[in-house]
Amino acid sequence: MAPLAGERRAELVTSLGAVRARIANACIEAGRDPHSVTLIAVTKTYPAADVATLATLGVLDIGESRDQEAAAKVAEVAEAQGHGAADERGPSLRWHFVGRLQSRKARSVATYAHAVHSVDRPELIGQLAAAVTRAGRGRLDVFVQVSLDGDPARGGVAGGGVLALADVVAARAQLRLRGVMAIAPMAAEPHRAFAELAAASAQLRVAHPEADAISAGMSVDLEAAITHGSTHVRVGTALLGRRSQVFG
Asked: For position 222, which CATH number holds?
């Protein structure tokens, strides 16, 4: 049975406090300002009600990895906010697409996402740019996904191809190159993996100084990612709990 609204809010307050403390402590250890790290709440399989609650707690960056679920959730949250009085409507959310993006989903994702963290091939760049134009919207933020293990099933481009792909992104007026993203390989030591990503980021910034963002770190390894410069951590389980339910 799903928890009551008040119970669920209390759960999220507690877990959010713990996650924010972890981020703050990691930043202190790394000599960084905690405000330099954006917390993205990855809400896949969780309901729009959780998104709305997190927004009231100040979490405005929301991550999703499946277009069908994300599009429905974006619409549901927007409808709920639209029905409230002007002073009751929630703050504006920033939606991040963080999963592997299928080419056929690019058009849909471009209608609601503020950022796509998983761009790893040239054809996807063209499709996203065209979709932005078609939607008549502002620029879409893009992270180039870097493969740290060479596994094509996990997505990402090998380190040697990052700059070439970034050049393609930067050439598109509809897109804004933000930086790099990666997922630490399951069998890898996180510090070693994120040090490799930091090196890729440094090389990218030589050619594109404005692309200074690093999207890295999840529930199990956010401290290591912050140590190596992550600016965006993508947290699901530590914030929302184990995913036992399926979005419906």
From this structure: 3.20.20.10
